[in-house]
Fold each of these.
Amino acid sequence: MFDLIKRLTDSFGVSGNEEGIREAIINEIKNDIQVINVDALGNLFAIKRGKGKKIMVAAHMDEIGVMATYIDENGFIRFSNVGGVSQFVSVGQKVRFKNGTIGAVFYEDKLEDMKSLKLSKMYIDIGAKDKKEAEKSVRIGDVACFVGDAVRQGNMVISKAIDDRSGCAVLIKAIKDLPETDNEIYFVFTVQEELGLRGAKTAAYQLNPDFAIALDVTATGDTPEANLMEVKCGNGPAIKIKDRSVICHPEVKKLLEESANRINVPYQFEVLEFGGSDPGAIHISGGGIPTGAISIPCRYLHSPVEAASLQDIENAAKLLVEAIK
Ligand SMILES: [Zn+2]
């Protein structure tokens, strides 16, 4: 599982620029699934045909990043966020543009105190001697992801983009491990979740499934002075009750809970008081779709050091397979 996650998190896929990660996922599954499609927005569909229930399983393949907005005469690049990027988390990091150009992220010396730090007072230094040289590598509108190579430490994986490449890894594992079933299953790797659940919205509308299950990360309450939250890393995948975008359907929640009990996978319940996720768009698509979610507990969300338990990710895959077979 670690090697798969490493391959996925190494791939480039800032929201709206998912070609790299989409190719990487197709490479992982092309011998294991009957049909692979890509829609107009870039969502990737891996389809297992059948006459039973029509099920949508979704994980977003995009990751947060930054976009070049202005290059000054000295070649320093101003930028804005693509998705939820914190100025405090970005300071001192490296970013990588699609063409491989690496930049250092730092802030103006004149800043009086750290509290007034804003992305607009920060810049990316790609080591260019002036604007002209910088423009040979980076153009306005180019996007970059954070650099945060995946490492394994005991049972934890630490990397950028665990949100939501860990969910993509769960779908890939489920595609490979799925036993004979009559259900028609659409494994959807969605685009632009980090910009407001955009890909999931059009994917769910096209499919109009009987029900849907999404896989994504969730915050935890197990770090020093964390906000109060029941979810802990290593205590098993979480069955989502709600976040700010959705209240999960009771029947799907029940299906997930019964499935976990049947195969003895440890689980916890997730009530996330901030943030939304793909189920928020899926459940209000068309005439409404019963939707639930399996969440992978993850510390330090939207940073280059997102940390999750490999055991939780493995168990999320087992739980998903049991629920959809
Ligand atoms: Zn996510």
Amino acid sequence: MPIPIIAHGLQEGISAIPHAWSVIRIAPWFILLAALKYYFGGARNTSERLMASKVVMVTGGTSGIGACVARELAARQAQVVLLTKQHPSDGFLAEYIDDLRRETKNPFIYAEQVDLASLHSVREFATKWIDNVPPRRLDAVILCGGVAEPASARGQTQDGIDDEWQLNYLSNFHLLSILSPALRVQPAHRDVRVVFATCSSYIGAKFDLETVKRDEKDSAKSKDQGPAARLSVRPKGIYAVSKFALMTFAHAFQRHLNAYERPDSLPPCTRVLIVDPGLTRTPGTRRWLTGGSLWGLLLYLLTWPFWWLVLKSPSQGAQSILYAAMEEKYARGEGGWFIKECREVDCARRDVLDEDVQKRLWEFSEKQIEEAEKEGAVKRTLAKKEKQAEEEKKTRQETSSAKTQTAGSRRSRRNK
Ligand SMILES: NC(=O)c1ccc[n+]([C@@H]2O[C@H](COP(=O)([O-])OP(=O)(O)OC[C@H]3O[C@@H](n4cnc5c(N)ncnc54)[C@H](OP(=O)(O)O)[C@@H]3O)[C@@H](O)[C@H]2O)c1
């Protein structure tokens, strides 16, 4: 069809083709739009690795970038363990997993409840995993779970810690600290990878542990208001600080794994990779852009073509993470690579490699977890006692009302 039209145009002149000048005028804009869309879409992963039967843990695997990573790995027949906020018995989650199994023709997709907003939940899962005898196979841990809260939704977790700090950093620290023996115990020939999802905001982070401590004080003030209490003051830039801390910990964790002397004297087989997926159109980004308000949502919808153009789709955002999980060359070496747009790049902040910073952060995190867990344990015991007391009171009331009823019942009166 286009060939006869072009031939006609060449013979009779362009004006002979209806709307030809309009098309010529519009075409460069379409080409520019397509070029921009392609550019903002970022690099595509072309690396592959045999994933069948490999066991991969994914946090944040139910939405956004993490969901695409989980789907791609499941499609390659990996055994995917989704660490989710909800219990596996949750109706929506069960349906989601059923769909994923059907779509990817992979029955080996499971969910385990790991609420990153609860240090207790993280501990419960991780200790259950490492207590398994014989040790369970583990080929990769992909950490995509997290939050980027708009300023209006300042909050704290049930542990009384800033939610961005805990979900983006502290819970990952907690999870990997407990899972560390499960990673170290893998056979030396196994290529095990831990992939951390970071964000370029780390570059501007003002890393000061006092920032997080200040937040603790604020949490303490609002502790009596319950877990949903809102923080009156959120430390400035805590999201960036949490990502900076995550990257610093990633390097420290690699050093911790490398320092382990295996009983078979073979070199360590677990490598850490840090990935910046780039700006992506996910539920998390949408919430952040809209500021969590209806007006924000309206503005977002009105400007949607712009976001469609400049932000990656979740599937495009997943590419660098898939590259980190599957590129063959990362099966060897010391680990601690930083990946962006499916290639290795230098980290913009050299202080994430500073051993002193790593040590201080590690000690601080351990202390923060210990304190929060102690408080959490006391709260749980008190809540349990309260519940028991209430149940006992209820039973006593029921028994006494049953007795009174029997005494005044029609049958008892008739019997008199
Ligand atoms: N999107 C971007 O532009 C961008 C840019 C740079 C870096 N990143 C990083 O990439 C990662 C994924 O980002 P995303 O935009 O895909 O995030 P997202 O759409 O907000 O998804 C976050 C995931 O974390 C899970 N999650 C939230 N709270 C949780 C909790 N308490 N316990 C367990 N899981 C919880 C969510 O589960 P539910 O589905 O149950 O809510 C969801 O699956 C994040 O680490 C983010 O910082 C993203």
Amino acid sequence: MSLSDTTEIHQFACLDDNFGVLIHDRESGTTVAVDVPDAAAYEAVLAETGWKLSHILITHHHWDHVQGLGELKTKTGAVVIGPERSRQKISELDRTVEDGDDVLCGPYEVKAIATPGHTLDQISWYIPSIKVAHTGDTLFALGCGRVFEGDKEMMWASLSHLMHRLPDDTTIYCGHEYTEANAKFAVTIEPGNEALQARAKEIADIRALGKPTLPTTMAAEKATNPFLRAGEASVADALGMAGQPAEAVFAEIRTRKDNA
Ligand SMILES: [Zn+2]
């Protein structure tokens, strides 16, 4: 049986708009958490599923991603793996990674992809064997993270890296449920994108039911996420920036979103 057949993934809401994610392999009993916005939310899901937490992967140092880490680590004894750049900021780290490192979590070979911009330490986690990635606060559904510690050029480079690195059929989880607001903004950038218009309607319906819009896929993001589409001539044209380089178009889109 392949790892995809024995894997179950549980995504749940934490805090106001954060996500908790648990990746579980039935065969080995391995259970991997990505970020811990809220220990109690994780404990509730672990109790409900009976899964025993073995590993915690951290995407970046922001409080809403590590707030529950100390408590969850103490209660479960899970091994905590996160960015080397945050070794000083996150005291619970047992192991740190840099760009290109591989870590083994039970049967899962997990690749660390450095995607700085939102923060300098940001790591996106990718598990090729099950075609799953977690992009933290770098890539969101129809959006990207605000650029706090890096600069816009750095963020564009990180998003470009993800586009090249993650196959179109990769299932993507991320840190926040921001999709509805992102969709409203995205249609102002590319009103003529029919796939985007259809997705925006779908998202409004999903949110009206109170359901999550994540995970997404790389294919869906490439087709509809304006931040990934900064290199498309149609997007540059729509912004009156024909012929300008993708990073300049990206910077303009990011600035407009910051001011929206
Ligand atoms: Zn953040």
